[in-house]
Amino acid sequence: MQGNESLLIFEVKIDRFIEDLIAFLRQSTGVRCRKISTPQTLMSFTIGDQDRILQLRFVVVGQGDGMPIGRLSWLDQKGVDHICCFVNEDFDCVLPSRKGGWRVQKKRPDEVCSIRLFNLKAA
């Protein structure tokens, strides 16, 4: 699978995944997300109040062990990217394995992003 094919795999399923993620964040943290467009991301949303503005980003980062890998992260006002998790084409959280591939985590992306958001807002 080459460059654009990895991107296309995520584009097929991204809308539903993001809808569910945004709904979970709204329910669990009370934040409201506003969709924005940036050239390096497949999907991007901003949340914030006057104290802190954060950007939730989904970036396709390439392939790992023959499968496309995406990254969910919060970008803060200073430009620091706070990674929530990496996801496979099924939007399962994945971690690099010792054998060089990727292994599925038990946590869901929405849970991980919500926890990361709570920690960033508390800091």
Secondary structure topology:
Layout: H1 3-29, E1 34-36, E2 43-48, E3 53-64, E4 67-75, E5 81-87, E6 93-96, E7 102-104, H2 109-122
Helix pairs in contact: 1-2
Write a structural description:
This protein has helices at 3-29, 109-122, and strands at 34-36, 43-48, 53-64, 67-75, 81-87, 93-96, 102-104. It has 123 residues and is of the alpha+beta class. The chain has a 7-stranded antiparallel β-sheet with strand order 1-2-3-4-5-6-7. Strand 6 and strand 7 form a beta hairpin. The model has no long low-confidence stretch (mean pLDDT 81).
Helicity level, as a percent range?
25-40%
Order of helices and strands: HEEEEEEEH
The total strand number stands at 7
Rg measurement, Å: 14 Å
Through-space gap between termini? 40 Å
Morphology call: globular
Describe the sheet with the most strands. 7 strands, antiparallel
Question: Please, what is the average pLDDT?
Answer: 81
Beta content: 35-45%
Going by helix content, strand content and strand pairing, the class is alpha+beta
**What spatial order of strands do you see in the largest sheet?**
1-2-3-4-5-6-7
- Low-pLDDT stretches are none
Number of helices: 2
